[in-house]
Amino acid sequence: MAADTFVDRLEQANEALATKGFLPPPPDLQGLTAMPNGILAGFSGHHLYFCEPYLPYAWPDKYRLTSDYPIVGLAAFGQSLLVATTGHPYIVTGIDPASMSMDGLPSLLGCVAKRSIVSTGDGALYASASGLQGVGMAGSRLLSNEAMRTEHWQALDPANMTAVWHEGRYIAFTPNGGVILDNAGRFTTLAGLGASAAYIDPLNGALYIVTGGRCLQRFEAGAPLSLRWRSKQFSIGAGFVPPLARVNARTYPITFTLLIDEVVRHTRQVTSAEPFRLPAELRGEVLALEVSGAVSGLKSMGVGYAVKELVHG
């Protein structure tokens, strides 16, 4: 077997090795999320990883970013990426993995359920221990604090929420119930309608849920279920309650309840959108309104001093 020696005295005439630094994805990579420009993002522990554009097998370590808290999940919106952690959230922006910037938001409301994270197109939402957290390029805010107290939110079991963004609504399920936030900021509690998984069919836009561990059902496809919805509390400054009320919905009858200082003071069956009178001389510090029954298409409800005020807003 012959042997020879070659001394390389040639100048470098070829381009640099393009695949230098290409690594396979970490073995414990999770939360794979698609971003624009052929970029995939994933995480492991405190570390956020990006692949080479359009090369999902190449994950250079030089693109790795690090958070202060363990990462729970990701959601892409626009050219940005929400990084939800057990502490404050981060927003990552950029069009190339080599130039991604990662900015922490001041809110210290960590994500308690990775399956509660959804993208809304212009932002993202996730469940925290204190309420539903909204994150966007303008910052973050707690969306549920005006509609319910922290103890009411925690009673919904946010740590076990599975959520989707469907027809402009945040719909979250737990094994025993759920909650809906619509685009007007109204919350509806789904008492007894629990689900362990949810899926939106991209062909027909229908939402399917798994109930009872193995039963697949289409959401909002059957007869209306019985529900109960309560408004936030309104301060009336130790004054008299307005004398008129109105419930505007698609179907009736509906059970209307008036609460003053968290005590039920009046209940009645409402059969139309016509305004009706409340008992005279009701007083208190705060009031809240509640409807219940097989309610379909609740448009509005309120109290007022004149019929014109209730009908025309």
Alpha carbon gap, first and last residue: 98 Å
- The CATH class of the largest domain: Mainly Beta
Structural class: mainly beta
The CATH superfamily of the largest domain is identified as YVTN repeat-like/Quinoprotein amine dehydrogenase
CATH structural fold name of the largest domain: Methylamine Dehydrogenase, Chain H
Shape: elongated
Strand-residue proportion: 35-45%
Domain module tally? 2
Q: Which CATH architecture of the largest domain would you pick?
A: 7 Propeller
Low-confidence stretches: none
Radius of gyration: 27 Å
Oligomer type: single chain
Specify the biggest β-sheet.
Answer: 5 strands, antiparallel
What's the helix-strand series?
A: EEEEEEEEEEEEHEEEEEEEEEEEEEEEH
How many beta-strand runs?
27
Could you characterize the architecture of this molecule?
This protein is mainly beta. 4% of the residues lie in helices and 44% in strands. The longest helix has 6 residues, at 307-312.
Q: Outline of this structure?
A:
The protein is mostly beta strands and 313 residues long. The chain has 2 domains: 30-225, YVTN repeat-like/Quinoprotein amine dehydrogenase (Methylamine Dehydrogenase, Chain H, 7 Propeller), CATH 2.130.10.10; 228-312, Sandwich (Jelly Rolls), CATH 2.60.120. It has helices spanning 150-154, 307-312, and strands at residues 30-35, 39-44, 47-50, 65-66, 71-77, 80-85, 90-93, 101-104, 118-119, 124-127, 132-136, 139-142, 162-166, 169-174, 177-181, 187-191, 197-200, 207-211, 215-218, 227-230, 234-240, 244-248, 254-260, 263-270, 276-277, 283-293, 300-304.
Layout of helices and strands:
Layout: E1 30-35, E2 39-44, E3 47-50, E4 65-66, E5 71-77, E6 80-85, E7 90-93, E8 101-104, E9 118-119, E10 124-127, E11 132-136, E12 139-142, H1 150-154, E13 162-166, E14 169-174, E15 177-181, E16 187-191, E17 197-200, E18 207-211, E19 215-218, E20 227-230, E21 234-240, E22 244-248, E23 254-260, E24 263-270, E25 276-277, E26 283-293, E27 300-304, H2 307-312
Antiparallel strand pairs: 1-2, 2-3, 3-4, 5-6, 6-7, 7-8, 9-10, 10-11, 11-12, 13-14, 14-15, 15-16, 17-18, 18-19, 20-26, 21-26, 22-25, 22-27, 23-24, 23-26
